[in-house]
Amino acid sequence: MKVYNCIEDFENINNPVVTTGTFDGVHLGHQKIIARLKDVAADEAGETVLLTFYPHPRMVLFPDDNELKLLSTQEEKIQLLEKFGIDHLIIHPFTKEFSRLTSLEFVRNILVNQLKTKKLVIGYNHHFGRNREGSFEHLKEYGPIYGFNVEEIPAKDIDSIEVSSTKIRNALETGDVSTARKYLGHHYSLTGKVVGGKKIGREIGYPTANISVEEKFKLIPADGVYAVKVKHQNFTYDGMLNIGNNPTVEGKGRSIEVNIFDFEKDIYGDDITVYFMERLRDEVKFNGLDELKTQLALDKINALQICKTQVLLSSFTL
Description:
By secondary structure, the protein is an alpha/beta fold. Helix content is 32%, strand content 25%.
């Protein structure tokens, strides 16, 4: 897959078959669009082109909106799109100036003049251009004028619930990583650097790696205890992870700590990725460390069983 950092860098290719959107999380709905894009490209003897944007448009249009949380970092999205077989990925800088393009200007200047689009494949209810004024109806009108065809993928449901990035975010914000996995088609993950902590876990027989996630817009699932798989230097381990404030030991501030089973390496400063398999329970304040240790022993049994029965669905490598 060739990656371009702006539209102007894109090279001329034969029969570009194009789609566009944010593609946050590259969930099952996005994967339907990509699959169709590839089928059309094969039929047209063309190549697939995906146009997306960075930063996320809401970060530019609503810079004070601290509620926006994303399912994938830029690096994760690139890896996912490469996995699903996109030929050309354009990550164009999204600016306020770019946001002021009318739907006609977007079609004429971007899709036609810059990308030389042969066929455009878009998702259901796709909007584009200034104030999201452009729609499928506009594209059907512009297509014959500018010499490209357009196809809209109809709404795709899973168990009668439409797949969307918003629904996945809502699931993760309640700790429902199973529903998130169902809609994503892969396990949700976090990547971060291992940093120093209070080392209380080590004192009670459950040493933890404290994870610092640098991407501030990356969505952190709800507080609680989770069964996870952990990837470090291309090796994968089972583990259990706590997100929260560690009330039993009077923790200060929210932290992400993972106990990696049968693992004794010093990995301070290293990057690791955790994959959420299942949520085990809420974070609880126990009556002392002995009660906490008893519960952690039960958590480990449950986490091992879950990790044993679930196959890791992932495309990310460190």
